[in-house]
């Protein structure tokens, strides 16, 4: 039984990763292949062309987004979905997760160690809001000595947001993506980097 569990622990992450990559490839290929068949014909189409075109489109969109007026065009579908009652929550959550994983809108010292008052317990968190931002409702409600910190939970897509005094946090030499990977895996991540307060 011990060897079975050890074998599953080795095989399942590989199988699940391959299955997710395969799902992405099949989904993109299935969606875009009819367009390419209509454009170039069945004889010139080859498997993988749709996915290669998807990657090329992503590069073009990413490159062109550095111009403000073009970037505003790419943002229009997202703004439309944010106005739809059913899509707003789903799109917003997915968008926020990708922003957090990419480190977007985070300062260099946004990953912190939160010390709980009257306790030796410490938690890894990510500073999401600081006071003084007039265009943000939460920021306007923070005291000058407070910050809002997101505390991710292990093995769960979720967490807590707490408002804590600045003297309860210590900056960590870690990116938000590294902090999320480390926390979500319960500290078992094999790709974690050494970090120091």
Automatic annotation (TrEMBL):
| Pfam families membership | DUF502
InterPro entries in UniProt: COV1-like (IPR007462)
Q: Does the keyword Nucleotidyltransferase apply?
A: no
Which UniProt keyword terms apply here? Membrane, Transmembrane, Transmembrane helix
List residues traversing the bilayer: 7-25, 45-69
Q: Which domain of life is it from?
A: Bacteria
PANTHER family membership: COV-LIKE PROTEIN 1 (PTHR31876), PROTEIN LIKE COV 2 (PTHR31876:SF26)
What is the protein name for this chain? DUF502 domain-containing protein
Species of provenance: Idiomarina xiamenensis 10-D-4
